[in-house]
Structures are given as C-alpha cells and as structure tokens.
Amino acid sequence: MYSVILVDDSMPVLHYLSRAVPWEQLGFQLAGSFSDPEEALTYGQQHAPDVLITDIGMPKIDGIQLIASLKQTQQSLMSVIISCHGEFAYAQQAVKLGVQDYLLKENLTADQLVPILEQIRQRLDQAQSHSSEHQRLQEDHLRHRLLIKRKFTSELLSGSIQDPEYGIQRLTHFGLDTRGKMILPVYYTVTANEERKQRFHDLDLLSFTVENIVEEIVEHSGTAVHLSKSPGEGFVWFALPVRSGAQQEMIVHEVMYQLIYSVQKFAKAEIVTVCGSKTLHWQEAMNDAIQLQAQADRYFYLPPSTLCDSTHRLDFQKESDLFANYGTAAESLALALLPDGEINLWINNWIERLKQERYHPETVKTFMLKLAIDWQLKQQQLHERPFAFSVEELHREMGHIRHIHELTEWMNIRFGALAVLSRDWTLQANCRSEIIHARNYVEQHMNRLVKLEEVAEHLHLNASYFSRLFKKETGETFIEYATRVKMQRAKEWITAGNGTVDEVSQMLGYQYKSYFLKLYKLYTGHTPVKSKGDTI
Prior knowledge:
Largest sheet: 5 strands, parallel
Strand order of the largest sheet: 2-1-3-4-5
GO molecular function, one term: DNA-binding transcription factor activity
Low-confidence stretches: none
Radius of gyration: 29 Å
Pfam families: HTH_18 (PF12833), Response_reg (PF00072)
Subcellular location: Cytoplasm
Protein name: Putative response regulatory protein
Shape: flat
Number of domains: 4
Distance between the termini: 32 Å
Oligomer: single chain
CATH class of the largest domain: Alpha Beta
Number of strands: 10
Domain Response regulatory: 3-120
CATH architecture of the largest domain: 2-Layer Sandwich
C-alpha cells in the first residue's frame, strides 16, 4: 500500500476525511493526520509518504511551502490541495509544483477524493513498475559484471595465470591501467551480526549490497578496481602513481575509509580490510594476493572497519590448549545459565580470553557450538526439555561466522536466549505445556514481533481460546508477556554494552525507535540512558 498524510488546521475536516475515505480499499494507508503543518513537515521528512493531501491557508507554514519543502528531498511526492475560493492564486502556484489536483473545501466530500486517489494510485503503480524494471536491469548488469570479475579472481588466486601480460590486460579491461604504476592488492571480508543478516533475509543479498557499494566507490575513485572472490569477500586493486609513500598512502586511505564508512552507513555491516605490499611487478602482486586470501582465517581477531596491513596476520594457539578447559567451561556455563547467573559476564570474559589467547577460529567455533549443543542435550536427558535451537540450525549459523565480532553477537543472542529459557523453565515447573511452548516460540523469534494469532496457529489452538488460557495460567496477556521479555532482553543487552539503542531496538524487531523507547520506559521505569551511561 502507498502511504498518505493529511494536513489541515481544521480538525473537523481531518476527522471527516480520516473516517469517510475508504483508504485501504483504494490501496492506501493513512499514515498520519496533522493539524500542525510543522509537525507534518517533520514527519514527512523522516518517513517520506507517497501522497500529501493538504490545506493551503494554514498558520506558520502554508500548503505551498509544505509541498515545496517536502519535494526538496522527495521529488516523487504526489500532492492534492484543499483550497478555499479566495485562494486560487495559491492553487495556481501549486500547479508549478506538480500538484495532482485541488478541491474546494466548502463543498468537500469523500466521494470527490476517490477518483483522484484512484488516478494517483495508477500513476504510482506505473512509476513503481518502471523503477523496478530499471533497477532490475541495472542489478542484472552489475551481477553479470561481478561474475566475470569473480571468474578472473578465481583464476588469479589459483595461480593458473602464468602470462603477466594477460593479467595486466584483464585489469585494463576492468578499468585499471597498471603500466608504470605501483600495484597494491587490498583484501576485504564482510562481517555482520544476526540482526543485520536477517534484515537482508540472507547472506547473499547482504553480500550483494556490500559488493554494490564497494563497486560504486572504487569505480569512481579512478585509481582502483574491485574484484570479488565470493559473496562478502574480495579485493580492491590499486594502481598508484610512482610518488612518495605518503602520497600513495593518502590515495589508498581516502578510498578505503570511504568504503568502510559507506558499508557501515548503508549496509549496516562492518568489513575487515588488509593491505598487501606495493610492487611494480604483476607476478609479485598476484602472489601477494594469493597469500592474503590463503591466510584469511588469520584476520579473525583483527578490528573491523580499520585498514590493517599484512603484518597483522596472527599465529594461533594449539587446539588442545582450548579443549583442555572444556569441562570447566561447561560447568561455568551451566551456572551462568541459572536464573541468578551472569551470562553476559560469562560471555564477555570468554570473548576477552579468546582475543588474548588467539585460538584458531575453527577451534573456537567448534568449542562454542559444542557448549551450546551439550547444554541443551543435558536438559533434554535430565528434564525431557526440547532443544531450543536445532543442531542443524546452530551448525548453519556458525558456518557463516568469519570474525570475532560476529561470534560475539552469536553468543549474546543464543546463550542469552538459553538463559531466559532456563529461567522460565525453573519458574514454570508446573506450567501447562501450551504455555511453555508459547514462551519458547517467543524466545526463538526475538528478532521480530510475534502476534498472538501466529503462536495460536503454531500450537494448533483457536486464537481466542489461547488468549484466555495464557491470561489464566500466567496472570498477564500474551502481548504483555512478549513485550516484557523483549524489554528484559533489551535492558540486558544495553547494560552489557551489546549494541546501541538503535541496534537493540532493530534486533528485537521494532521498526520505530520512538515506540521502542516508550515501551522500554514503561516496562523498566527509566530510559536506556539510566541503563547505560550513554546518550540515546
């Protein structure tokens, strides 16, 4: 549906149009109605509605000014003017702003708006169709170009390119002239937490978004070319003028830090970048790139969003050194997952230890995976409790982790969920199975808003019956419970410093930060500022 906002300083007009127009039947959602045009302007700039229906004669900001201001940031805005007889001069100005239609307020009826809105919807549909087709063609072209580059990168990293001239020609074909210049390969890999992955639905879409950002920035630099190896991993190849080292470093830093910033801003992800060595010889640059990629697992502990050099490649401790502590780790995890345990402290202590000791990433992932599975298995054997997360699901998630930053997020989400389940199991020893399953379902879907009807369907129960049952058994409604649990999790994460307020609200499925803050204060008695000595 397309979004509409109404603006008129006459409350009767607002109330009448809000109720009398069949918005949803016409394909629209009434996103807001405003008697104050300044409030409407603020809302419009933040949420970019598709259609604006506004009065002209209003205090502070008239309708013409409102349309013009919103069109500065949203050229596609459709608008309809509500005018009085004496304001036709204003209406003529509105034509210059591309206003779709105007109505006389004295004889205004909802029926008059219906055909206008139908025409607007048709125009929006056409614009959306054209935009979608244009975007699809652009994406197809970019995907094809990335595939060609990826094929060449595969050849390069396999060491099968024996003829330096072939490699130089291919880079020239991609837009990089390396002749007489210093060649520098820079390796990158994408890191993203669970919330960011789920926001993009899958890793391929997230990786394509990042590749698109990298491609655009590097292409416009004029000094480098982007060669993707696989989704979320690749190289930026520089051809640097033979100048002083400081000038070359400035060129590289300008491109790479713009890239890092853009990935953070638009993909909400981080990237780890590692520079190779500058050389005039293609063969040496190719061998350097092979080494950079071959030792990618050694960048597991490098800080994200920082430009590192190849000297940061780290050696790892022995696998046996970590697993020698497995029994102690399992016992401490069991204590941390008790209702009065400190799971966040346990996680933070382990992350700091891993950073200091630097065990091999595969060893670390196997270790944490085993802890999560063994604890659930023990709960199943001793108390006949179901697995909160399947072994297959945990293996799949762990297989995507490339960096300590992602592992930290995974531990906070998965071990945090197990702690809440453990607490609920302890408190619900005599609780009905339907309530236990409902609570488990909420815990397993903390990343989005779960509706009562959805849980009732999952339990094969009538929604009304399930609502009454949940209230009777727990003393609170299902919505109250789901919100309370989310706010508890939010407080734990914010207090532990596991994300900003924006990130936590998004990880818990709240689209609007203002709504999340209102719920947080309602359930905790204070704002996140009180939970964490930080500003919102």
